[in-house]
Amino acid sequence: MVMSYIQFARELKDLGDPPADEVVRELLDEGRVNSVNQLFRQISSANSDIPSQTPARLRDFLESTRAFPDWMEEARLRDTTAFFDRHRAAASALQGTVGLVGTYLSPVSAYTLHATHQLSHQPHRRLSQSTRLFTGMSRADAFSPRSPLVPICQKVRLVHAAIRELHRRSGRWDYERMGAPVSQLDTAGAALALSVGVLDGMRNLGLRVGGNEADGFVYAWAVLAHFLGVPDKYIAEMGTRREATELWMEAREYEWRRSDEGVLLTRECVALYESYMPPELKGAVSAFLRKAMRDEYADMVRVPQSAYDLGASVASLGVSAVLGTPAGGNAIVDAVLKVLGDAVEDVARKAAAHGEETEPRMSDRIG
């Protein structure tokens, strides 16, 4: 690794996203946030026509940020496809649990998310919007010209820019202590937690992932980091699994701390997933998170202690009915993974069926 995490953090902590920030500043000044959120629904793929009523500056942003980076390699994406062919369900379950909780372990990220009124105290909504990235990554067209991921990332960039601008206008953000709101350090850190952090969780749970497959998963998140606005200079520092793992391990030691907001967000996450557990698996979510994350980090966000035995026999718990194809060497872990994977997809389905907003949405106020 060429760049240490301290240098990486120093350069990204105060960095916003100038192209998105300029667009959002104009949209807020003109009171067009709600109308633009309506436009978002009409853009579903990288090659979608941009609606004719789109403001000029926003149109320029959408057109200039939809092309795949020239450094993207088709050969490496074949490893990405191999990863999802074998591990799609487990990866989705872990991204929606261990990965998200990993982002809550950054006090600044947790504070920012909690201060955003549209997502605070709404774990279903947070999950349903995040799920679109998780499930979209495993699609055959994920990295094609008709990719559904590209417009999602563009919208997320604008959402992040709105949060930054609203905090700037509030005059209450402590820039010296916390850096920029939703800085590129936050975005890069989330990409690491949702890639390397998820692979670490899979390993802790006994799930076996081949080296090339793991490389493909990390590479997919490097491509997404590009579309989320992280400058390519820094993506090069996290573009291989070895480099990304070194950065993530340093970041975890440097950044992860207890915060009231992180504890609250984690509590909501655990409660949400517990609501999906059948009676014989009640209490398993906390045990699952503790095994995947390790107690040291689970304690920081107060993941409840659980007497649930992830090593118990299937017969003793009567969970054979919920087992799918085993993913690892532990039948109870497989059972919990299956329920969690189904829960991640169910949240998104229910949100769509009930007309809840699953599109990333810009806000015109903060909590």
Give a short summary of the structure:
With 367 residues, the protein is mainly alpha-helical. It contains 19 helices and no strands. The radius of gyration is 20 Å and the shape is globular.
How many angstroms does the end-to-end distance come to? 39 Å
Helix % is 55-70%
- Radius of gyration, in Å, reads 20 Å
Number of helices: 19
What does the main sheet amount to? none
Shape: globular
Secondary-structure element series:
HHHHHHHHHHHHHHHHHHH
Q: Which structural class best describes the helix and strand composition? A: mainly alpha
Low-confidence stretches: 313-327
Oligomerization: single chain
How confident is the prediction overall: mean pLDDT? Answer: 86
Structure description:
By secondary structure, the protein is an all-alpha fold. The chain has a domain at 5-255. The chain is built from 19 helices and no strands.
Topology (elements, then pairings):
Elements: H1 5-12, H2 18-29, H3 33-40, H4 56-64, H5 74-104, H6 107-115, H7 123-136, H8 149-170, H9 175-178, H10 184-193, H11 196-204, H12 211-227, H13 232-235, H14 241-255, H15 260-274, H16 284-293, H17 295-300, H18 314-317, H19 331-353
Short key terms for the protein model shown above:
367 residues; mainly alpha; 19 helices; 63% helix; MPAB/Lcp_cat_dom; oxidoreductase activity; Lcp-like
